[in-house]
C-alpha cells in the first residue's frame, strides 16, 4: 500500500498551536511513561516545515 501524503496550509498562529499541542501531548505521554517516538517524529516535521513561498508575477512578463 502506498502512503498518501497530505499538505495543509496553516498560518503562523496555527503552526504555533500545532507545536504547542503536540508538545503538551508528548509531555503527558512522558508523565505516563509511554513511548513518544511517533509524536517526536511528527513534532519535528511540524517544527521543520518550510514556509510557503508565494510566487510573484509581474503582469508585464505575461
Question: In brief, what are we looking at here?
Answer:
Helices cover 52% and strands 0% of the residues.
Strand content: under 5%
- Poorly predicted runs of 5 or more residues: none
Mean pLDDT: 89
Element order: H for helix, E for strand? HH
Number of strands: 0
Sheet bearing the most strands, described? Answer: none
Question: Looking at the chains present, what oligomeric state does this protein adopt?
Answer: single chain
- Structural class from helices and strands? mainly alpha
Total count of helical runs of at least 4 residues: 2
Name the shape in a single word: elongated
**Radius of gyration over all CA atoms, rounded:** 17 Å
Task: Assign a percent range to the helix content.
Answer: 40-55%
Spatial gap, N to C terminus: 42 Å
What key phrases describe this protein's structure?
about 60 residues, mainly alpha, elongated, single chain
Question: What's the arrangement of secondary structure elements?
Answer:
Blueprint: H1 12-31, H2 37-48
Helix pairs in contact: 1-2
Question: What can you see in these coordinates?
Answer:
- The protein is mainly alpha-helical and 62 residues long.
- The protein has a domain at 12-48.
- It has helices at residues 12-31, 37-48.
- The protein is elongated, with a radius of gyration of 17 Å.
Amino acid at each position: 500500500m502506498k502512503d498518501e501524503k497530505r499538505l495543509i496550509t496553516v498560518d503562523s498562529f496555527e503552526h504555533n498551536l500545532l507545536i504547542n499541542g503536540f508538545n503538551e501531548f508528548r509531555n503527558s505521554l512522558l508523565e505516563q511513561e509511554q513511548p513518544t517516538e511517533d509524536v517526536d517524529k511528527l513534532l519535528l516535521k511540524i517544527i521543520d516545515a518550510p514556509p510557503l513561498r508565494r510566487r510573484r508575477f509581474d503582469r508585464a512578463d505575461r
